[in-house]
């Protein structure tokens, strides 16, 4: 069966992802900025409210994947927090200035995660590498469990040909998990094109809040609504992925 990891922007989205049939949650914050590490309270509450696998994004800020010494220390501490909170895995990626994998720093993070028996997903920093195919081998050597990737393109549908090659090269040594721009409407085509076994997406809808009074000085409807993972979209995506 082809399985889905939901990219959840809150504990409620994590709960909705489980309702829709996802097998795993990647919990993060600030999706509009590409995702950052969520608060410890969000992590702990998500762990309390879902039974499926819970992975947490370890990314201290928006922007590139070259981190200062201070940011690296924050990342290490966040992995300790996740391990103590009972998370199943962490998601991270650090690059060197030349677009290669920073083997030393990533290895340090892997060792901390393994201390807590957590799995490791190398995230879409991979898509910014100067050579995806050699970087794949570096990540396998590090001991990571999967790579979240759009095939080096802005979206997975655009990178489908490269994704197929990466899956072939991986040869079951690591999971290649396509993500980026995947919807319930395009997943079937992506499955046919790549032979993927796992995929990743947020599958969100906009929900209205409960405010009765709305200030006339704030006319943007987004002020009174929120984007959350939609369990129906999750369910449909899984069905479409497995019925081709």
Structure report:
It is a single chain. With 244 residues, the protein is an alpha/beta fold. Helices cover 37% and strands 18% of the residues. The chain is built from eight helices and ten strands. Helix 1 (11-20) crosses helix 8. The radius of gyration is 18 Å and the shape is globular. The mean pLDDT is 97.
Q: Uncertain segments of ≥5 residues (pLDDT<50)? A: none
Helix % is 25-40%
Rg, nearest Å: 18 Å
Shape: globular
Strand content: 15-25%
| Spatial order of the strands forming the largest sheet | 7-6-5-4-3-2-1-8
SS-based class: alpha/beta
Number of strands: 10
Largest sheet: 8 strands, parallel
Taken in chain order, the helices and strands follow as: EHEHEHEHEHEHEHEEEH
How far do the termini sit from each other?
Answer: 12 Å
Number of helices: 8
Query: Mean pLDDT score, rounded?
Result: 97
Q: In a nutshell, what does this entry contain?
A:
Helices cover 37% and strands 18% of the residues. With 244 residues, the protein is an alpha/beta fold. The chain is globular, with a radius of gyration of 18 Å.
SSE blueprint:
Blueprint: E1 3-8, H1 11-20, E2 24-27, H2 40-49, E3 53-57, H3 69-84, E4 89-92, H4 103-115, E5 119-122, H5 132-142, E6 146-149, H6 160-170, E7 175-178, H7 187-194, E8 198-201, E9 204-208, E10 225-229, H8 231-242
Parallel strand pairs: 1-2, 1-8, 2-3, 3-4, 4-5, 5-6, 6-7
Antiparallel strand pairs: 9-10
Helix pairs in contact: 1-2, 1-8, 3-4
């Amino acid at each position: 069966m082809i399985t889905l990891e939901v990219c959840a922007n809150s504990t409620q989205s994590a709960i909705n992802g489980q309702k829709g049939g996802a097998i795993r949650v990647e919990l993060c914050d600030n999706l509009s900025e590409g995702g950052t590490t969520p608060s410890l309270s969000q992590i702990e509450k998500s762990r309390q409210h879902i039974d499926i696998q819970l992975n947490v994004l370890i990314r201290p800020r928006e922007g590139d994947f070259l981190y200062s010494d201070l940011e690296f220390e924050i990342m290490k501490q966040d992995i300790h927090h996740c391990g103590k909170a009972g998370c199943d895995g962490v998601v991270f990626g650090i690059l060197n200035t030349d677009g290669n994998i920073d083997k030393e720093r990533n290895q340090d993070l892997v060792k901390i995660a393994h201390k807590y028996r957590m799995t490791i997903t190398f995230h879409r920093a991979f898509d910014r590498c100067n050579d995806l195919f050699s970087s794949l081998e570096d990540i396998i050597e590090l001991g990571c469990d999967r790579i979240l990737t759009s095939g080096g393109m802005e979206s997975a549908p655009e990178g489908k040909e490269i994704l197929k090659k990466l899956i072939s090269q991986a040869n079951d040594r690591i999971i290649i998990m396509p993500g980026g721009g995947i919807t319930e409407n395009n997943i079937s085509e992506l499955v046919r094109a790549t032979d993927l076994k796992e995929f990743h997406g947020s599958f969100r809808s906009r929900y209205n809040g409960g405010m009765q009074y709305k200030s006339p000085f704030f006319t943007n409807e987004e002020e009174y609504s929120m984007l959350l993972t939609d369990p129906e979209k999750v369910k449909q995506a899984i069905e479409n992925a497995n019925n081709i």
